[in-house]
Amino acid sequence: MNIPSDLKLQLIRLLAAGKRQQAVTYLRQQFTISTADAEKLISVLEDEITTSAARPLQSVAGLAGCAILVLRSASIIIGMMALLCLAGAAYFWYSAQQFAQQAIRLKGKVIELVPENSAGPAVAPVVAYRYNGRLFTYYSNNYSHPPDYEVNDEVVMLVSATDPEKATIDSFREQFSVSLGFVIIGAFLLAVSLTIGFIRRKLKKAFGK
Length: 209
Hints:
Number of strands: 5
Structural class: alpha+beta
Distance between the termini: 40 Å
Strand order of the largest sheet: 3-2-1-4-5
Number of helices: 4
Mean pLDDT: 87
Shape: rod-shaped
CATH architecture of the domain at 104-159: Beta Barrel
Helix content: 55-70%
Strand content: 15-25%
CATH class of the domain at 104-159: Mainly Beta
Order of helices and strands: HHHEEEEEH
Low-confidence stretches: none
Radius of gyration: 37 Å
């Protein structure tokens, strides 16, 4: 039996209010049918309501499943990037230590402070040093404001005996700034990866995935 939309809406309202028996009586009065037939029609209508209500939940669950897969992939990728950064930090730290142990220590003099850009106040030192009578120049990449050095400051240089152009200022910042940068980036990425993993587990628990 095809129930008109206005009548169906009234029946749905009664069922939503928990007045099932009243809905049966109302249906019998409208169509002059038996109680058994009215019960069957109400049961069919209840099934339709249940199915309609379940569809949005199924859609949400499907979206949640996709989100869980995306979050899982993102967590793995970002976690791998974090591990690579931390591995890079360890490599550069070890390399800096090895260079410091094998390098020759010489005195150098800051001859210039080079700005990072034309508008910024941060500057990096340029150091001149001599090795075996030859003059070399070291350009630092560590910019700071206020500056760590002034022109004419004397600094200790670490210079490679086999390649005197390879040098650095004997300071923690000059030797390990690259390693610290990788550590900071790696730690940040690891925190992001763990946060995404936490959110994924919460979604998985909520939707039983």
